[in-house]
Amino acid sequence: MMSDDAGQMLMVYDDPSDQRSLSLDDTSSTEESPDETRLSLESTNDVVPYIGQRFPTHDAAYEYYSEFAKSCGFSIRRHRTEGKDGVGKGLTRRYFVCHRAGNTPIKTSNENKPQRNRKSSRCGCQAYMRISKVTELGAPEWRVTGFANNHNHELLEPNQVRFLPAYRTISETDKSRILMFAKTGISVQQMMRLMELEKCVEPGYLPFTEKDVRNLLQSIRKLDPEDESVDLLRMCRNIKEKDPNFRYEYTLDSNNRLENIAWSYASSIQAYEIFGDAVVFDTTHRLTALDMPLGIWVGVNNYGVPCFFGCTLLREENLRSFSWALKAFLAFMDGKAPQTILTDQNMCLKEAIAMEMPVTKHALCIWMIVVKFPSWFNAVLGERYNEWKAEFYRLYNLESIEDFEMGWRDMVNSFGLHTNRHIANLFALRMQWALPYLRSNFFAGMTTTGHSKAINAFIQRFLGAQTRLAHFVEQVAVAVDFKDQAAEQQTMQQNLQNICLKTGAPMESHAASVLTPFAFSKLQEQLVLAAHYASFPFEDGFLVRHHTKLEGGRKVYWAPQEGIISCSCHQFEFSGILCRHTLRVLSTGNCFQIPERYLPLRWRKISTHSVKLLQSSPSDHAERIQFLQSMVSSLIAESVKSKERLDLATEQVSYLLSRIRQQPVSTQGLRDISPLHRNL
Question: Which GO biological process entries does UniProt record here (predicted)?
Answer without folding.
Answer: regulation of DNA-templated transcription
